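Hey, sorry to bother you again with one of my protein questions. I've been staring at a protein lately and its backbone has me curious. I owe you a coffee for this, so here goes:
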Amino acid sequence: MRIYLLFGAVLGLSAVAPMFFQPVIDGALSAPPATQAGEPEKAVPVASVKSVSVSSSGRNVRIQADDSGHYSADLKLNGRRVEGMIDTGATVVAINVSTARKIGISVASLDFRNAVQTANGPAKAAMARISSFEIGRIKLTDVDAVVLEDRALGQTLVGMSALSRLSRFKAENNVLLLEQ
């Protein structure tokens, strides 16, 4: 039971943690590395998520921070388009019941026995697995996730169950770089 309470506290705090730490992170980042003399910058395709730009190149994705310092992007979960926010403080990818249904997860078969504490208060959660997870040209399979009641989670959070499977991720100058 302690593990579930701890998990709930971490999940709840992960939704608000970026707001508190973003100014510290932004101030600590250095200027972008200079390109070699005469070397043109590489062009990468850019797709827009509301006012946020996402660039993909090979197995790299660059996400521009929004005005509040969050990194949001279009994802494909089980082939369905979903908007999500990158949250390095979240242990696992978190989706709500509506998103679970949208991406083909059978909500009726989930066991919502785990009590968790979120930023929106106490909620019930169930473990699930996302078969196909894509962000730009990065593709992952069998990503662990937690499903929460709709009232407990307003948007999809991309947590460490996905991010830890990348070769690296790095935030610098309001750009988040993801590499596979």
Residues 1-11, 13-53 have pLDDT under 50 and may be disordered. The radius of gyration is 17 Å.
